[in-house]
Amino acid sequence: MTRVKCPICKKPAEAKWLPFCSKRCADADLGHWLADDYAIPGEPAPADAFDPSAED
Hints:
By secondary structure, this protein is an all-alpha fold. It has one helix at 23-34. It has a domain at 1-37: Erythroid Transcription Factor GATA-1, Chain A (2-Layer Sandwich), CATH 3.30.50.10.
């Protein structure tokens, strides 16, 4: 069986925090997402995609 390693610190993951080893690493990962450090590749959204005044 392969052990999952924490993507932040590379320690063995704990079941409670999968795929992380602790709340600290889970929170660090969330912080990276909130700071736009991570991005999902894809086509850019149209300029008016988030404009609430744009017509449907």
